[in-house]
Write a structure and sequence with these properties.
Elements lengths: L12 H9 L9 E2 L13 H7 L14 H15 L9 E4 L2 H12 L5 E6 L4 H8 L3 E6 L15 H5 L1 E7 L11 H14 L2 E5 L14 H8 L6 E6 H4 L8 E4 L2 H14 L5 H11 L3 H20 L14 E5 L3 H12 L1 E2 L1 E2 L16 E5 L4 H15 L2
Amino acid sequence: MMPNRFDALPTATWPRLRALLDGHAAGGEVINMTIGEPKHKFPEWVGPTLNDALGQFNSYPDNNGTPELRGSIAGFLQRRYGIDLDPDAQIMALNGTREGLFNAVVALCPTGSKVLIPNPFYQVYTVAAMAVGAQSVYLPAHAQTGFLPDLDALTPAELNETSVFFLCSPSNPQGAVASAEYWARLITLAETYDFKIFADECYSEIYRNAPPPGALEVAARMGADPERVVAFHSLSKRSNLPGLRSGFVASGRKNIARIKQLRAYAGCPIAGPIQHVSAKVWADEDHVVANRQLYCGKFEAADHIFAEIQSYNSPEAGFFLWLPVEDDEAAAVKLWIETGVRVLPGSYLGQVANEQNPGSGYVRVALVAPKEEMQRGLTLMRDCLYK
């Protein structure tokens, strides 16, 4: 006998994309613009710093993060958001934020409650809800609402049953930024209806103009309950270290205590040498500024290439383009067959709700390749899809 809790899961994004494209020959030199895997260089000192700590592989790692690492994370939060958190009680290191997002739902979300999820979304949100027997409610995040959920459309009855509200800012895939005012409205709703906000802020350091406000920052300014916001950050995008699998969760003492309790039984701590190098990476901002400047240059190039395309939307942050097309799967196949450019159909990141998938009619384009390769891919894309 097998459990049926995951029977409704669709085929995962990447196997689904391979099934769509791999039966066709590429129409040119392959330019992969699908996965958000950073390709800029990480700091040169990462390797030597890691090497200095290799002896720690002889020991079991600290389950919640070493004092050095948690202190470095607290320093980042203070510099970036002006908030002071107790590194011993309000911060826990994560073996990548996907693990943390999933386990935080297991630790904090009651069975039978509702989990509100922006649509399209990072797929782990709904899988975590399924795991605890919660109901996923998909909130459309389309152009008419600034690519964020419309808070005015939520009903008191729905909010009364809500335990968790996921929000990714800057958003994946659209690159929309929740303003301080938006966060404040959401936090006010959470206070009124007693739910938690899971703030996925993994793209927080990749922006074009002003730094995106943080949920913890706004909550502290409002004097909200410290347990109201659970924030997640990662070194994957900020520091071009997706393979390091290093991030953190920060929240109130009660939330972190419950997450730590679960991790003591079922967690997967970060290896000691990786914790050591992560502490150094969180403490350094120079490489983050340089990385952000590279992405700003890429967005300027993309704006130039699509300048005459009326439907083009230039994102505020993150490193994706969310390009409108008539049919997202057909557009991905056409690009692949005619040009060799590989993109992701937007519907693969969304869910059908009320007979609509807000990801349909878009393709997601990752701007992670070297700039010259990226420009070549975007030019081929423009000429193939829009002319």
